[in-house]
Amino acid sequence: MNGTDAVWAVGRLTIGSLVKALAPLRVYGADNVPRNGGVVLALNHFSWLDVPAFGAASPRNVYFLAKAELHDIPLMGPFIRSFGTYAVRRGESDREAVRQMRRCVQDGNTLGLFAEGTRQRAGVPGEVKPGAAMVALHEQVPVVPAAVHGTQYWKPGNFHPVTVVWGRPVVFDAKPNGKAYREVSTELQRRIHGLWRFLVDTHALGRPQHAVPPA
Prior knowledge:
Blueprint lengths: L2 H11 L1 H8 L2 E4 L10 E5 L6 H8 L4 E6 H4 L4 H7 L3 E3 L6 H12 L3 E5 L16 H9 L3 E7 L12 E5 L11 H27 L11
Parallel strand pairs: 1-7, 2-5, 2-6, 3-4, 3-5
Antiparallel strand pairs: 6-7
Helix pairs in contact: 2-3, 6-7, 7-8
Protein backbone atom coordinates (compact mmCIF):
# COMPACT_ATOMS: atom_id res chain seq x y z
CA MET A 1 0.00 0.00 0.00
CA ASN A 2 1.46 3.39 -1.03
CA GLY A 3 0.80 6.75 0.60
CA THR A 4 -2.15 7.60 -1.64
CA ASP A 5 -3.79 4.24 -0.93
CA ALA A 6 -3.39 4.84 2.80
CA VAL A 7 -5.03 8.27 2.54
CA TRP A 8 -7.91 6.77 0.58
CA ALA A 9 -8.37 4.05 3.20
CA VAL A 10 -8.68 6.68 5.92
CA GLY A 11 -10.85 8.88 3.69
CA ARG A 12 -13.36 6.08 3.08
CA LEU A 13 -13.77 5.60 6.82
CA THR A 14 -14.14 9.32 7.55
CA ILE A 15 -15.27 11.41 4.59
CA GLY A 16 -17.03 8.47 2.96
CA SER A 17 -18.99 7.73 6.11
CA LEU A 18 -20.00 11.40 6.42
CA VAL A 19 -21.27 11.47 2.84
CA LYS A 20 -23.33 8.34 3.42
CA ALA A 21 -24.81 9.82 6.58
CA LEU A 22 -25.43 13.43 5.54
CA ALA A 23 -26.38 12.85 1.88
CA PRO A 24 -27.82 9.33 2.00
CA LEU A 25 -25.91 7.61 -0.79
CA ARG A 26 -27.18 4.81 -3.00
CA VAL A 27 -25.04 3.24 -5.72
CA TYR A 28 -26.07 1.26 -8.80
CA GLY A 29 -23.83 -0.68 -11.15
CA ALA A 30 -20.63 -0.74 -9.05
CA ASP A 31 -19.76 -4.09 -10.63
CA ASN A 32 -19.30 -2.25 -13.94
CA VAL A 33 -16.07 -0.64 -12.72
CA PRO A 34 -13.10 -2.87 -13.72
CA ARG A 35 -11.17 -3.94 -10.64
CA ASN A 36 -7.77 -3.96 -12.35
CA GLY A 37 -5.89 -1.99 -14.98
CA GLY A 38 -6.05 1.56 -16.20
CA VAL A 39 -9.52 3.01 -16.65
CA VAL A 40 -11.11 6.41 -17.25
CA LEU A 41 -14.23 7.38 -15.34
CA ALA A 42 -16.27 9.94 -17.32
CA LEU A 43 -18.46 11.74 -14.77
CA ASN A 44 -21.08 14.48 -14.78
CA HIS A 45 -20.64 17.39 -12.36
CA PHE A 46 -23.07 19.53 -10.36
CA SER A 47 -21.46 20.30 -7.01
CA TRP A 48 -18.32 20.08 -4.89
CA LEU A 49 -20.13 17.16 -3.24
CA ASP A 50 -19.69 15.11 -6.43
CA VAL A 51 -16.05 14.37 -5.59
CA PRO A 52 -16.68 12.67 -2.22
CA ALA A 53 -19.87 11.07 -3.58
CA PHE A 54 -18.14 9.44 -6.55
CA GLY A 55 -15.15 8.63 -4.35
CA ALA A 56 -17.33 6.85 -1.78
CA ALA A 57 -19.30 5.07 -4.53
CA SER A 58 -16.22 3.83 -6.40
CA PRO A 59 -14.84 0.37 -5.62
CA ARG A 60 -11.40 1.70 -6.60
CA ASN A 61 -9.34 4.68 -5.51
CA VAL A 62 -9.86 7.53 -7.98
CA TYR A 63 -7.23 9.98 -9.17
CA PHE A 64 -9.34 13.05 -9.88
CA LEU A 65 -8.46 16.09 -11.97
CA ALA A 66 -9.06 19.49 -10.34
CA LYS A 67 -8.54 23.06 -11.49
CA ALA A 68 -5.11 24.45 -10.66
CA GLU A 69 -6.59 27.24 -8.51
CA LEU A 70 -7.71 24.68 -5.91
CA HIS A 71 -4.18 23.35 -5.63
CA ASP A 72 -2.96 26.85 -4.74
CA ILE A 73 -5.26 27.23 -1.72
CA PRO A 74 -3.45 26.73 1.61
CA LEU A 75 -4.49 23.45 3.30
CA MET A 76 -6.87 22.59 0.44
CA GLY A 77 -4.04 22.03 -2.06
CA PRO A 78 -2.02 19.58 0.06
CA PHE A 79 -5.24 17.86 1.15
CA ILE A 80 -6.51 17.05 -2.35
CA ARG A 81 -3.01 16.13 -3.56
CA SER A 82 -2.79 13.58 -0.75
CA PHE A 83 -5.62 11.73 -2.53
CA GLY A 84 -3.63 11.74 -5.79
CA THR A 85 -5.53 14.62 -7.40
CA TYR A 86 -3.91 16.19 -10.47
CA ALA A 87 -3.97 19.87 -11.38
CA VAL A 88 -5.18 21.28 -14.70
CA ARG A 89 -5.26 24.84 -16.01
CA ARG A 90 -8.72 25.32 -17.46
CA GLY A 91 -9.30 27.24 -20.66
CA GLU A 92 -5.81 26.66 -22.07
CA SER A 93 -3.61 23.88 -23.39
CA ASP A 94 -2.03 22.06 -20.44
CA ARG A 95 0.42 19.49 -21.77
CA GLU A 96 1.65 18.57 -18.30
CA ALA A 97 -1.89 17.71 -17.20
CA VAL A 98 -2.35 15.56 -20.31
CA ARG A 99 0.93 13.80 -19.60
CA GLN A 100 -0.13 13.09 -16.03
CA MET A 101 -3.54 11.78 -17.10
CA ARG A 102 -2.00 9.39 -19.59
CA ARG A 103 0.62 8.28 -17.07
CA CYS A 104 -2.12 7.65 -14.53
CA VAL A 105 -3.84 5.01 -16.64
CA GLN A 106 -0.52 3.67 -17.96
CA ASP A 107 0.29 2.87 -14.34
CA GLY A 108 -2.95 0.90 -14.03
CA ASN A 109 -4.83 3.50 -12.00
CA THR A 110 -8.35 4.91 -12.14
CA LEU A 111 -8.59 8.41 -13.62
CA GLY A 112 -11.67 10.40 -12.67
CA LEU A 113 -12.63 13.15 -15.13
CA PHE A 114 -15.61 15.47 -14.86
CA ALA A 115 -16.37 15.14 -18.52
CA GLU A 116 -18.14 18.49 -18.98
CA GLY A 117 -15.06 20.35 -17.73
CA THR A 118 -16.94 22.38 -15.12
CA ARG A 119 -19.99 22.30 -12.87
CA GLN A 120 -23.40 22.40 -14.56
CA ARG A 121 -25.28 24.98 -12.52
CA ALA A 122 -28.56 24.38 -14.37
CA GLY A 123 -28.85 21.03 -12.62
CA VAL A 124 -28.79 18.88 -15.77
CA PRO A 125 -25.78 17.28 -17.52
CA GLY A 126 -24.06 19.33 -20.19
CA GLU A 127 -21.80 18.87 -23.20
CA VAL A 128 -18.97 16.38 -22.82
CA LYS A 129 -15.52 17.76 -23.62
CA PRO A 130 -12.81 15.69 -25.38
CA GLY A 131 -10.50 15.00 -22.40
CA ALA A 132 -11.81 11.53 -21.54
CA ALA A 133 -11.88 10.50 -25.19
CA MET A 134 -8.33 11.68 -25.75
CA VAL A 135 -6.87 9.68 -22.86
CA ALA A 136 -8.91 6.57 -23.66
CA LEU A 137 -8.01 6.54 -27.35
CA HIS A 138 -4.29 7.18 -26.86
CA GLU A 139 -3.93 4.58 -24.12
CA GLN A 140 -6.59 2.11 -25.33
CA VAL A 141 -8.15 1.78 -21.89
CA PRO A 142 -11.85 1.37 -21.11
CA VAL A 143 -14.07 4.30 -20.23
CA VAL A 144 -16.77 3.89 -17.60
CA PRO A 145 -19.49 6.54 -18.02
CA ALA A 146 -21.18 7.45 -14.76
CA ALA A 147 -23.73 9.90 -13.41
CA VAL A 148 -24.68 11.47 -10.12
CA HIS A 149 -28.04 12.94 -9.14
CA GLY A 150 -29.13 14.80 -6.02
CA THR A 151 -25.97 16.77 -5.32
CA GLN A 152 -27.42 19.75 -7.20
CA TYR A 153 -30.14 19.97 -4.54
CA TRP A 154 -28.10 19.15 -1.44
CA LYS A 155 -27.43 21.85 1.13
CA PRO A 156 -26.08 21.60 4.68
CA GLY A 157 -28.90 20.32 6.86
CA ASN A 158 -31.38 19.20 4.20
CA PHE A 159 -30.01 15.63 3.92
CA HIS A 160 -31.09 15.37 0.29
CA PRO A 161 -30.38 11.85 -1.01
CA VAL A 162 -27.61 11.39 -3.57
CA THR A 163 -27.32 8.53 -6.04
CA VAL A 164 -24.49 7.38 -8.31
CA VAL A 165 -24.78 4.97 -11.21
CA TRP A 166 -21.87 3.34 -13.05
CA GLY A 167 -22.40 2.43 -16.68
CA ARG A 168 -20.80 -0.44 -18.53
CA PRO A 169 -17.15 -0.01 -19.54
CA VAL A 170 -16.53 0.63 -23.22
CA VAL A 171 -13.33 0.50 -25.27
CA PHE A 172 -13.26 2.72 -28.34
CA ASP A 173 -11.28 1.39 -31.29
CA ALA A 174 -10.32 4.46 -33.30
CA LYS A 175 -7.17 6.32 -34.32
CA PRO A 176 -6.63 9.31 -32.00
CA ASN A 177 -7.51 12.48 -33.92
CA GLY A 178 -9.89 15.39 -33.70
CA LYS A 179 -12.74 13.60 -35.48
CA ALA A 180 -12.46 10.55 -33.21
CA TYR A 181 -12.36 12.74 -30.08
CA ARG A 182 -15.62 14.39 -31.14
CA GLU A 183 -17.33 11.11 -31.99
CA VAL A 184 -16.30 9.40 -28.77
CA SER A 185 -17.27 12.44 -26.71
CA THR A 186 -20.71 12.46 -28.35
CA GLU A 187 -21.18 8.79 -27.47
CA LEU A 188 -20.03 9.34 -23.88
CA GLN A 189 -22.44 12.26 -23.62
CA ARG A 190 -25.30 10.06 -24.81
CA ARG A 191 -24.44 7.43 -22.22
CA ILE A 192 -23.96 9.85 -19.32
CA HIS A 193 -27.22 11.65 -20.08
CA GLY A 194 -29.03 8.29 -20.28
CA LEU A 195 -27.60 7.22 -16.92
CA TRP A 196 -28.65 10.51 -15.37
CA ARG A 197 -32.21 10.15 -16.68
CA PHE A 198 -32.23 6.66 -15.13
CA LEU A 199 -31.35 8.27 -11.80
CA VAL A 200 -34.10 10.86 -12.14
CA ASP A 201 -36.58 8.04 -12.68
CA THR A 202 -35.25 5.95 -9.77
CA HIS A 203 -35.49 8.95 -7.43
CA ALA A 204 -39.12 9.40 -8.48
CA LEU A 205 -39.71 5.75 -7.56
CA GLY A 206 -38.05 6.10 -4.16
CA ARG A 207 -34.67 4.67 -5.24
CA PRO A 208 -35.53 0.94 -5.31
CA GLN A 209 -32.58 -1.10 -4.12
CA HIS A 210 -32.32 -3.42 -7.11
CA ALA A 211 -32.93 -1.11 -10.08
CA VAL A 212 -30.92 -2.15 -13.15
CA PRO A 213 -28.88 0.57 -14.91
CA PRO A 214 -29.35 0.95 -18.67
CA ALA A 215 -26.89 -0.74 -21.01
